[in-house]
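hey so i finaly got around to running the thing on Late embryogenesis abundant protein LEA-2 subgroup domain-containing protein from Acer negundo. pasting the sequence first so u can double check i didnt mess up the copy paste, my clipboard has been acting weird all day
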Amino acid sequence: MADKQAHLNGAYYGSNIPPKTDYHRPGRRSGCGGGGCCCCLLKLILKIVVTIVVVLGLAALIVWLIFRPINEIKFHANDVSLTQFNLNNNQNLEYRLALNITIRNPNKKIGVYYDRIEARAYYEDQRLESKTITPFYQGYKNTTVLYVMFEGQKALVGEGIQDFNQAKISGSYSIDVKLYLRIRFKLGKVKSPRFRPRIECELKVPVNSSTVAAGTTKCHADF
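ok and heres what it spat out for the 3d tokens, dont ask me to read them lol
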């Protein structure tokens, strides 16, 4: 009896297979699409950058809608004088171009600070010269006239000489004058951030324009 009792006390009741212990082994592809912490960090940075860009874009749009001129500022080129425009013995283009640029601010409550004005002259997409004009403030319903003169010489490259000769035969030269601006609008005592519009005046100047040419050319403003 003692042996049977001892055998019973040492018996195992239940399944003969002990339960498995589950150990978690992280695989190579786990978390954040399998890229781990680096992938999560990159996605977080990307979300932050996108959010900042969207917020700045909306802020810029709101500022522009507040400060935009009710009536567009108008630019015109007039009194154009081309007293020299010929090829010298070295086949360099000698030029002397003068003109007035009229700026009209028709708004009643918005003034304009012209913090930087750079005027550039182009012939056949080649820059002839750049001029920096003195900054100024333009008040309400005001017209300002800027006098600009370009003088010097420029080596024509590519088919520049051939194009020059063809233009001379046709009777007029195509010269572009562009203004690169940094401006701020003023509404009451509040000033807007800086904008950088570009103004382009496409001039058709007669070959024999030794005197001031009559007529006015409307310039295109790209804000």
